[in-house]
Each structure stands twice: as structure tokens, then as C-alpha cells.
Specification:
By secondary structure, the chain is of the alpha+beta class. The protein has helices at about 100-110, 125-130, 140-160, 165-170, 175-185, 190-195, 200-215, 215-235, 240-245, 250-265, 265-275, and strands at about 5-10, 20-30, 45-50, 55-60, 65-70, 70-75, 80-85, 90-100, 120. The strands form two sheets. A six-stranded antiparallel beta sheet has the order 1-2-8-3-6-9. A three-stranded antiparallel beta sheet has the order 5-4-7, with no helix packed on it. Helix 6 (about 190-195) packs across helix 7 and helix 9 (about 240-245) packs across helix 10. It is globular, with a radius of gyration of 20 Å.
């Protein structure tokens, strides 16, 4: 039988404020979505980000798209839509439901556009954490306002990333060089040397890198290695020991521990899930 559809609700602040609110949030595994034969009008905005697998997305405007990991799609209060597995298996996602005047204003300004509802942004784990980071864990109007502000920042950053990134980042060769090095290096970098090549002390480098990329350099490197690991796990049946060695981990157990910490699944379970295995 097909794997279970499991949804974990994520706590939202829930308080009323004049700008709007994040009203629901969650992360799903084995999502089966909304059948195309019974399109739904949500009555709110929503942001859905695909973490793994594929789905078919469409709406009453005639859009039809096959989406995969790294694709985010926006739902609009008055636009009927569907998203289902099509001929494939269920997928995993994280989502936020929201509404309020500030989001209506963004729509009127064309910043949230029903004609352009799909944005692709990677790396997946980085954006999953950014979406989850919208939520404060608190309650009441003050926490709700913080969540709205964080969500607006997230949407702006997604738009910028989808358009090719921030212009200041593109204009700074040291940042591009550092990212390229961290994305390709299997062995632990010489952080002092990397900072020196950027013309900084390590502390200066760490702070400026964190401000530009949203995470410290060591976390950025680990996230890129996890993305490469996920790609490798999807590619073939290579033993975990081999993949761990390729990516510079000391052994498969350390690799498995870090992978599960970041994705919630062991490498073996992740591989089975993405291949639509009849296993939960």
C-alpha cells in the first residue's frame, strides 16, 4: 500500500493585528493534495514549498505545471486550484496559510501574482528552514505581527532569489568565490585561509557571510553537502559508505546522523520515500 499521508501542524501565533496573520502552518509527508476533479477555492493565501517528490499543480486560470523539490507555489483566496500526484507518488512539503490587508496590497502591486504563482528556489533545506523560521512559537498580536513581517521578508527574498539573487551579492566577488568553494569542497576548509583570500579576518568573514547568506559559512557548507547527498541518494543504489566518503564525511554513521538531523529521515528512509517504495 502507498505510504501514509502524515501532516504535522506547526504552531502559529494566532493573534489579530491590522496587517494580517499567518493562520495555519504545517509540514506534510506523503501529501496527496487536492484532486483535479474537485478543484478548491481556499479563501486565503498560501505558500506551499515542495521538499521531495513531484506533484501536478493547476488552477482555474488554465495553468498546469509538474512541480518538484525546490518549487514553491502560491495559492490565492479566489483562484480555484488543484495539486495532486498525477501518475506519480505523493510528495513532501511545508506550507503557510495567511491573509490580511498587507497581502492584498502586495497582490494589487503585482508582487503576488495569480498569473505567476510558481517560484523555484534552492537549496531545499535552506528554504525549508527559512519558511519554518517565519513562526515565532509565541502567541498573541505582537507575535502575529512578527510572523507577518517575517513572511513578507521571506516572500521578498524568494522573489529576489528566483530573479537571480540580490544585486549586492552578485557584485561581491569574495562572496561568490566563498560560496563556490564551500559548495565544492569535500574536505573541511581552512577557514583562516578562506577569510584571508576574501581580505578579512575570520570573524569579519563569518559575520559578513552570515549577513549575506542568512546562515554562517559552516552551516552553509553543511547544507550544500546535504543537498548533494540528497541528489546522490536519488541517483542510484550506491552504498551509504561510498556516498559518505565521496562527500567527505568521516564514516556512514556520522553522515546518517547529520542527514537525519537536517531532513528528519535517515538516508535509507529518504531514498525509499523518494522512489515511491511501499514502505513507511
Amino acid at each position: 500500500m502507498s505510504k501514509k499521508w502524515i501532516t504535522q501542524a506547526l504552531p502559529v501565533a494566532g493573534g489579530a493585528n491590522p496587517t494580517g496573520a499567518v493562520t495555519l502552518a504545517g509540514q506534510s509527508r506523503g501529501n496527496r493534495g487536492i484532486a483535479r476533479t474537485s478543484m478548491r477555492t481556499l479563501g486565503s493565501f498560501a505558500l506551499v514549498y515542495v521538499l521531495a517528490g513531484k506533484c501536478e499543480f493547476g488552477d482555474a486560470r488554465g495553468l498546469r505545471r509538474t512541480l518538484g523539490a525546490g518549487d514553491a507555489f502560491l495559492l490565492f483566496p479566489d483562484v480555484a486550484h488543484f495539486y495532486d500526484p498525477g501518475a506519480g507518488e505523493p510528495w513532501d512539503d511545508i506550507w503557510l496559510v495567511f491573509n490580511g490587508p498587507v497581502f492584498d496590497q502586495w497582490r494589487q502591486a503585482g508582487l503576488l501574482d495569480p498569473a505567476d504563482p510558481v517560484w523555484h528556489v534552492e537549496p531545499v533545506d535552506f528554504w525549508r528552514q527559512r519558511i519554518a523560521g517565519v513562526l515565532t512559537g509565541g502567541g498573541g498580536a505582537a507575535a502575529s505581527l512578527v510572523e507577518v513581517t517575517r513572511l513578507l521578508t521571506l516572500l521578498a527574498e524568494m522573489r529576489a532569489e528566483r530573479a537571480g539573487g540580490f544585486a549586492p551579492s552578485r557584485a561581491e566577488p569574495w562572496l561568490k568565490a566563498a560560496c563556490a568553494h564551500l559548495e565544492s569542497a569535500d574536505e573541511a576548509p581552512d577557514w583562516t585561509q578562506l577569510a584571508r583570500q576574501a581580505g578579512m579576518t575570520y570573524e569579519q568573514f563569518r559575520k559578513r557571510f552570515s549577513a549575506a547568506m542568512g546562515v554562517p559559512p559552516a552551516q552553509y557548507r553543511l547544507a550544500r553537502r546535504m543537498d548533494r547527498a540528497a541528489t546522490r541518494l536519488r541517483a542510484d543504489d550506491a552504498p551509504l559508505k561510498e556516498i559518505a566518503a565521496e562527500l567527505g564525511f568521516c564514516d556512514e554513521f556520522h553522515f546518517s546522523k547529520l542527514f537525519k538531523r537536517r531532513t528528519g529521515l535517515s538516508p535509507a528512509a529518504y531514498r525509499l520515500q523518494l522512489r515511491g517504495a511501499r514502505h513507511e
